[in-house]
Design goal:
Layout (H helix, E strand, L loop, with lengths): L1 H22 L13 H14 L3 H9 L1 E2 L8 H4 L11 E3 L6 E3 H16 L5 E4 L4 H11 L21 E5 L2 H10 L5 E2 L8 E4 L2 E2 L1
Parallel strand pairs: 1-8
Antiparallel strand pairs: 2-3, 4-5, 5-7, 6-7
Helix pairs in contact: 1-2, 3-5
Length: 202
């Protein structure tokens, strides 16, 4: 997060410097109509805040972690499934949804890049505390019994590493082609809306 803030600040300074150079009295006026520097600045700032830049995508998807035998980062495993503290989670865009911070960063980047391609990705579920897993299992039944819920304490949602997405056919096709670039995989055959973040092992 600190590197993203630093990147945003450096972009702001660079754009302010460019704007000052363009408006300095010694500079000749131009008749080019390419959009005001204010618009350009705003677009760059929005892109940086949304995490739309390629370096952040690469960093989120390519960073490696110490994983346990089940592929769970050891830093998360220490907390326990469904017991991840708020400071280890990050908000997904402007929604109420949260994921483990690297997963949230990857998802934010993916949603922004899809939007640039004219594809809308919605989100319907994310991190599930243990109590919510218990409630879901009660309401929807366990997979082992033909239901739709993992046994409480074993859900990928309980690690903050899975999200349920709202996808039309175009978005589903885009996800299947691009999601792995952001660290996400479609790994539950009965649930095409379920996408899990799979960090790389150190």
């Amino acid at each position: 997060m600190n590197s993203r803030i630093a990147d945003i600040q450096s972009r702001m300074i660079a754009l302010q410097t460019q704007q000052a150079a363009k408006t300095a009295p010694a500079q000749p006026t131009t008749t080019q109509s390419t959009g005001g520097s204010g618009d350009e600045f705003a677009a760059q700032l929005r892109q940086a805040l949304a995490g739309n830049n390629a370096p952040s995508t690469a960093a989120a998807a390519n960073k490696s972690y110490s994983l346990n035998s089940k592929g769970i980062p050891t830093e998360l495993a220490a907390y326990g499934n469904g017991k991840i503290p708020a400071n280890a989670l990050e908000q997904v865009g402007t929604t109420r949804h949260k994921l483990w911070a690297p997963a949230a960063q990857g998802l934010n980047d993916m949603i922004a890049d899809a939007k640039r391609d004219g594809v809308k990705i919605g989100i319907t579920d994310s991190y599930r505390p243990f109590e919510e897993q218990v409630d879901l299992a009660r309401r929807k039944g366990l997979y082992s019994q033909g239901g739709l819920a993992a046994k409480p304490g074993t859900s990928e949602h309980g690690w903050g590493m899975a999200t349920d997405l709202d996808l039309d056919s175009k978005a589903q096709a885009w996800m299947r082609k691009n999601a792995d670039k952001y660290g996400f995989v479609e790994n539950v055959p009965r649930e095409p809306w379920h996408w899990a973040y799979k960090p790389k092992s150190a």
